Recover the amino acids of this structure.
């Protein structure tokens, strides 16, 4: 049986006209099919296919432009945020170290060339730090769009809760029980 992947309403495929091979869900008021922006219809009350998680997230994933980050699974975005925050923290510590070195060398006028070199490196690292700070903000705002918040701390417990909830949601059947004696009906 062909059903809507959003509400599990039974559908009928159109066999003629401009929307041949499509089906309209009157409950959701959407057209489903091969070229529909709402996706394909489903079989037997199955849920909407979800975005697949990537097997591994790296700093290169976090560095992607916004339009590509939007295509990632929410859990992958959280892991990208974790990577971006780690990179930003490393850069912050590096900038701090170079600034301390510059301050220490400023008292010795014979080391002006070293002060200039360290200052230049600190400025370059500062620009990298600014880049990763803005990247963190982008990812945080994408998470706010999806979840209504972004996690302050990202650890294994948070990750495992997301995975557990994801699996539970995907596998939960869309069934309606009409009476006490009747078994669940799709």
């Amino acid at each position: 049986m062909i059903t809507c992947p959003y509400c599990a309403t039974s559908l009928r495929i159109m066999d003629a006209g401009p929307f041949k091979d499509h089906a309209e869900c009157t409950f959701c008021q959407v057209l489903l099919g091969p070229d529909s922006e709402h996706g394909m219809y489903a079989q037997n009350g199955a849920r909407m296919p979800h975005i697949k998680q990537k097997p591994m997230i790296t700093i290169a994933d976090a560095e992607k432009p916004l339009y590509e980050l939007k295509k990632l699974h929410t859990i992958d975005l959280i892991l990208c945020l974790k990577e971006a925050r780690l990179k930003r923290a490393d850069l912050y510590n590096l900038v701090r170290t170079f600034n301390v070195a510059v301050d220490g060398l400023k008292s010795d006028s014979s080391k002006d060339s070293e002060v200039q070199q360290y200052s230049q490196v600190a400025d370059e690292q500062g620009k990298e730090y600014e880049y990763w700070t803005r990247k963190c903000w982008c990812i945080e705002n994408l998470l706010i769009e999806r979840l209504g918040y972004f996690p302050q701390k990202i650890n294994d417990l948070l990750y495992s809760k997301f995975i557990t909830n994801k699996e539970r949601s995907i596998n939960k059947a869309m069934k309606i029980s009409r009476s006490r004696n009747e078994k669940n009906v799709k």
User: Anything to note?
Assistant: Residues 59-154 form one domain. The radius of gyration is 26 Å.
